[in-house]
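Note to self: the last two entries modelled the partners one at a time, which told us nothing about the interface. This time every component goes in together.
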Amino acid sequence: MAEHAPSLSANHEEKLERLLATAAEIFAEKGYHHASIRDLSRRAGVSLSGIYYYFSSKQELLFMIQDRSLRTVLSELKRKLAGIDHPEEKLRILIQNHVGFFAQKMAAMRVLTHEYDALEGGYRDKIRDLRLEYSNLCTEILRELRRSTGAGDVAPLNVATSALFGMMNSIHARYQSGTVPAERLAEHLYRLFLGGFIGHSPRSASVGRRAD
Amino acid sequence: MAEHAPSLSANHEEKLERLLATAAEIFAEKGYHHASIRDLSRRAGVSLSGIYYYFSSKQELLFMIQDRSLRTVLSELKRKLAGIDHPEEKLRILIQNHVGFFAQKMAAMRVLTHEYDALEGGYRDKIRDLRLEYSNLCTEILRELRRSTGAGDVAPLNVATSALFGMMNSIHARYQSGTVPAERLAEHLYRLFLGGFIGHSPRSASVGRRAD
DNA sequence: AGGTTGACCGATCGAGCGTTCGACCCACCC
DNA sequence: GGGTGGGTCGAACGCTCGATCGGTCAACCT
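The predicted structure of the combined assembly is written out below.
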């Protein structure tokens, strides 16, 4: 009232957000193609055509879920990385951030990792670019890490990056039934990956070399 | 002709196999729910109703693809593991076997890893059991490995198993465009995982409790 | 009061889906 | 020749889906 107009706009945005969250749940449960707008309509208590007031198509709905999740993960990560120098710490932050979002927004993250192929045309291109940016950021951290530790290349950087994301994303199955807190899980994955990436002479036992 | 009857039966089995392979391609490309029997009918050059002479339903088609792939991977793995004593060698064989199948039967393996959720009822149960057997076999190897190297637990065994499968399955994206031969890729993943799993104990304080 | 607009709905359309059914073809056996 | 059964097909059924369209109704503006 006092302000320009955002009171109505805020309601709109709020409901849109609620619809997105509900849609993410349904997509996560049944998969994009198997889920119907009618499912969303029922669970959200909105008429079928009412959905189309907020989204122009089912594709756009899927896109917005993935776009928002990915942007949030990325911007949060960049914020946390600001001012950090040690590559090891950067890697730890990346893993904590990623795993943390899985624990916090499981449905949306599951849609993000499972339904990329369901995107079409321009929507797919935009998400592809964001994923690439995320992936490149990770690869750069690994490059720094390898340089600073003077480790040989156990694996090419792109393979290592791909493996790391594979590890992190595999936890959705593990997490659902597990009561392991996210920070602990992230710490496990951090050690698991870091140890392998830095590498150590396979045959010689080399115990207790460095302390961080 | 000279033999009993298997000439007809062999033709049958042959065509069934061809249909399975073609269906795997389509499922891998478009996803199970998005792919239609009509797609398969067109690409295989068989009439729509002709498909139903070989398969009783779309679900059974999906099940047979996953069942055959998983059984082949598992039995090949067991065969290769026979007579091997060193846990490190066992792990290497497991990874080589898994990655090798991805390179060899990419479409079917992609369906196996991507379309588990698309299975329903009894079909899902059967595949779940096979996956569990595979996963348990892996966990046992990791348990031996940890015992024989005297390494502390960097991560609980179930987390490590899950991470390993996540790593291995993530390569389908990497492999499609890559020209890296499968054995090389497997070797990279082997080193990457082994180094982290054995760990080089930064401070050895053994964070986690024992995993059962 | 009259007009405009944002928010929402019921009814419906056209398309595509998995599956079924009855009919054909043809190689084989009596 | 007549029958039998494996293999194949065209046409159709019943259903669900994403999307559209005209209408309603309260809130606001003038």
